[in-house]
Amino acid sequence: xxxxxxxxxxxxxxxxxxxxxxxxxxxxxxxxxxxxxxxxxxxxxxxxxxxxxxxxxxxxxxxxxxxxxxxxxxxxxxxxxxxxxxxxxxxxxxxxxxxxxxxxxxxxxxxxxxxxxxxxxxxxxxxxxxxxxxxxxxxxxxxxxxxxxxxxxxxxxxxxxxxxxx
Length: 166
Known about the structure:
By secondary structure, this protein is mainly α. The chain contains 4 helices and no strands.
């Protein structure tokens, strides 16, 4: 009985496939000659190509958006560091001006001299604060412009890409 099984059992994968195909042809006589109409095949190929193009387009858009966000966050981070450096510089200048004022006031010999030193200090502080406010405003404008530029450029690039794709 073992010899009979060996004789009928397929020895290779190709023989097994041929045996299965033969059984399918016996059960379904037109199975081996079934052809997909050319129009249907062409439509399926076109749909697959359109789906691939759409996928590639969306993938490219997502990559562009990610790059734009990364650039925007990098610009914001740089702007924040610039603000911190500016604020520390202003604080140092104010601190030094305060110590200079106290040092001058310690050496005062008359009330008139104290009023003069106080008036000069107040005027210098007002001028310094005015200048610092202008510098902060210019820095804020620059940071805003630099921070939004990558995002605006990324959106414009994505829209152009989108228009070209569709």
